[in-house]
Amino acid sequence: MVGGRGRGGRPWIRRGARLTGAAAPTIVWFRRDLRIHDHPALLDSVRSGAPVVALFVIDPRLLTGRFESPNRSWFLARSLDALSRQLAACGSPLVIRRGDPTMIVPAVAREVGAEAVAVSRDYTPFGRARDRSVAGALEGAGIAFRQRRGVLIHEPEDVLTGQRGAFRVFSPFHRAWERLPIRDVLPAPETIASWDDLHSDVHALDELRAVQPTADSEHLLEAGAPAARERLARWIEAGPEHGPAIYASTRDRLADPHATSRLSQDLRFGLLSPVEVAEAVRTHHGDTDRPRRFLSELAWRDFYAHGLWHEPRIAREPFMARYAGLRWPGTDADAEGWREGRTGYPIVDAAMRQLAATGFMPNRARMIVASFLVKDLLVDWRVGEAHFMRHLVDGDPASNLGGWQWAASVGTDAQPYFRVFNPVTQGERFDPDGEYVRHWVRELGRVPDARVHAPWTMTEAEQQTAGCRIGVDYPAPIVDHAKARLRALDLFGAVGPGRVRA
């Protein structure tokens, strides 16, 4: 028999798995918030004085479903190991279970006689439906389901138009977003009154640890909240040629591995809270406008999450309904050439090979390859969305969806359909000396700078000197960009331009 103190110092007593004192435990169900710092749901539960059951449910539907990703499974397993160590240092074990959370969470709550289940709010259609089911089952047992902030900076209900509607264009959204005060960063609990008679499904966690990434493990970043906090500190303090203050001028340098923060996977898994990231940037740089471009990326993250919350249908169809019936004439062979990085356009192929090798791709490269797939090859944007979600460690349902619908000119505040990225000029502009291309497309290692983004323009003598025969060592372009652009304009123009209001 173990004793402790509950609310107001009242004693609680644990016998086996049942509580006989005044304070019933609270389950903190971790999902996309695998940290103990700046975690409102966790800190509220700890401050209540009741013992805490820290729970994570390995949901096979997410690991092997529509957007299965060995890379994210690999990263998740190691992030859970780090979270387990952090919780153990506070005196609380992490309980791992495997199965459908709509069954597992209520069962654990009944097992410990829980008073409540606390979570960080989810905004995806899948997550909201799951949480409604869990909340309903808990309500029937007299157990509260408490949703707290923790995943976004601002909530969907907080950033609205003057007519209390959702913003459809980013610029006015951003202005409204910036005017709102950001909540304070919360400290990590030093100690957690725990409830430690529950078993963990060790076999399920071992299975998750055993998943092999499709990316080369040497290129994967270290997982877990401590490593994420170190990345944040390095990014904040980087300089004078890198960091948030000059992000606007560095973010499109494709060959520079330090051009961006590399915090996207940490935000995706909640190893960092976006509030903490924003506060760290503002604290370091003071009341200046210098890091505003970097902070706007956090606003874009909120914008896409809010959009999916307000319009759940866009998880599987374009925001612009007039494009729902658009017939994409692109072929499977074209899509496969794109996936393999064998389109004959070096900047596209370099980015796709980087994705395969590392599970990451810079945002500028994402825009280039997305434009190429949907505008040059006329392949359905959902093909690209699925491929990215399979490989990206930072694959986020809302942000990835928003980015692909933006590139395809069918989404919220999407680029105009007549804007078609030229892969040659994009390469020349954002990889001027070809360093990025040569790193990932080794066949082009000796191609001269003047030809590296359009190697098919080499003469036979130049190809021989470079050791790169077009059509043999490196593919010829699978499509003529100029002609492909006209086809895209015809396809989209036939539907009509339409307009999107703020």
SSE layout and pairings?
Layout: E1 2-5, E2 11-15, E3 18-19, E4 26-30, H1 40-47, E5 52-58, H2 60-63, H3 70-89, E6 94-98, H4 101-112, E7 116-120, H5 125-140, E8 144-148, H6 170-179, H7 202-210, H8 225-237, H9 247-250, H10 264-268, H11 274-285, H12 292-310, H13 332-339, H14 346-358, H15 363-376, H16 381-391, H17 397-407, H18 423-430, H19 435-440, H20 460-466, H21 481-493
Helix pairs in contact: 3-7, 4-5, 6-12, 8-11, 12-17, 14-15, 16-17
Outline the structure in words.
The radius of gyration is 25 Å and the shape is globular. 44% of the residues lie in helices and 8% in strands. The strands form 2 sheets. The protein has a 5-stranded parallel sheet with strand order 6-5-4-7-8, with helices on both faces. Helix 3 packs across helix 7, helix 8 (225-237) runs parallel beside helix 11 and helix 12 (292-310) packs across helix 17 (397-407). Among the domains are: 2-151, Rossmann fold, CATH 3.40.50; 321-493, DNA Cyclobutane Dipyrimidine Photolyase, subunit A, domain 3 (Orthogonal Bundle). It has helices at 40-47, 60-63, 70-89, 101-112, 125-140, 170-179, 202-210, 225-237, 247-250, 264-268, 274-285, 292-310, 332-339, 346-358, 363-376, 381-391, 397-407, 423-430, 435-440, 460-466, 481-493; strands spanning 2-5, 11-15, 18-19, 26-30, 52-58, 94-98, 116-120, 144-148. It is an alpha/beta fold.
